């Protein structure tokens, strides 16, 4: 399988587009016609061929452009990538995990040649061919975490584990759903989730923490999360909120289909071998409303989920003001027919829109 | 009355206790403004402990109100400093010279306690040896998430960032590392529409 990498932007003129293939494999997050928080963890041991769940680190058509966007963000604000002093070993663990996984899962795109501690890493899509000494920071242009996450899609939170708790002690965060690594670094699991409404009272974080503390080497886990973003903007950071916030008010009934995006995070969790840290990649997938509704089941379901979502969650996810307009648009694609269980598009078995 | 009962909030927001005498070979007390009252209360419980203490006191707006009362406790060392910043080099030296078992007592405004706690933890003082009691002003030390500048003693919500001038609302989300709450632009989605400022907790 060869991937055609898009040349596109996630800012200014927003030339980002999903191909038919990307739309078909989009990680639609709703397995039923309603949504409430849950821990919803499952093992991350592959998935259907071609799906975003198949490989340990999914590489798709947006790879090269996303990495260019990340480089822009880091030039503007180097604080988006930080690692507390005790986290360097975890950075090497992460570098190894990503290099080994990508070279095994995409041998046509990535190569890793190891001769003792002398490693040669070839990243063909990005035109990188570097030889360095494993565990010797002076042989890389950046620290190990920054080096490898400048070449891997999605944000990365690297969590130290001590005192039966996870601590956000390092990260590369440029495609975040409105949280600040610079503010949250050093916090524990409950503290950095503090602003999330309802889930604390529901015991979600206690259960999630218990699960995550016990993730073992070689047995990664995954879950999905979602929110809404106007324009295909990856960098919805609090740092830049005073610049992008106003875009939320630019929706009209005419442009909502192309401008409003469902933003899905594929969150995975890997135990790292030397540091015993936990790495938490948060991979962001964007899809325009007009592309979701091409799948009849997804159109029906998204309308029902957004319609019935508790007000508190719609507020927290930042689309309470735009919800009526979203429902006017999505309602056109909901004919009231039942939907099949599960997240898959089921295009061959689900009926076409009866409207 | 210098005691304020904070309403329940999110899990990143610090909660404070009441200073109590603890056994230890040395005692370091750092207070600002009405924090002096917590030290006076502590002395009522254990005058000898306070007499053995090193007190760093920043009167802020209270001027001379508490200085003589603190002197009357006859602490081993009492350093009255015009500002926290001015006391910082001294504080660092004291922490650097400290021996195992030092007990740290922080009291006064949140900004003072948060910053002094950071210094103590950076010096390797275990958090179990640090006590905090809030007294006096409920003003907050705020970080602007946009320009990263710190605005001290914020009393109203929203407020104007003293560095970049954006109108920020006051969140309860708190970073121990920065010893600051987070301020976020309030009119990003409707520029110019800034609600009237109200005093915190009013």
Automatic annotation (TrEMBL), chain A:
Per the record, the domain of life is: Bacteria
Protein's name in the database? DUF3445 domain-containing protein
Organism whose genome encodes this protein = Roseovarius albus
InterPro entries linked = HODM_asu-like
Write one Pfam family the protein is assigned to: HODM_asu-like
Automatic annotation (TrEMBL), chain B:
Please tell me whether the keyword Transmembrane helix is annotated for this protein.
Answer: no
Pfam families for the chain = DmmA-like_C, DmmA-like_N
In terms of InterPro entries, this protein maps to: DmmA-like_C, DmmA-like_N
What positions does the domain Dimethylamine monooxygenase subunit DmmA-like C-terminal occupy?
141-184
Q: Name one GO molecular function term.
A: metal ion binding
Q: Which UniProt keywords apply?
A: 2Fe-2S, Flavoprotein, Iron, Iron-sulfur, Metal-binding, Oxidoreductase
Give all residue intervals belonging to the Dimethylamine monooxygenase subunit DmmA-like N-terminal domain: 9-130
Q: Which domain of life is it from?
A: Bacteria
The molecule here is called Uncharacterized protein
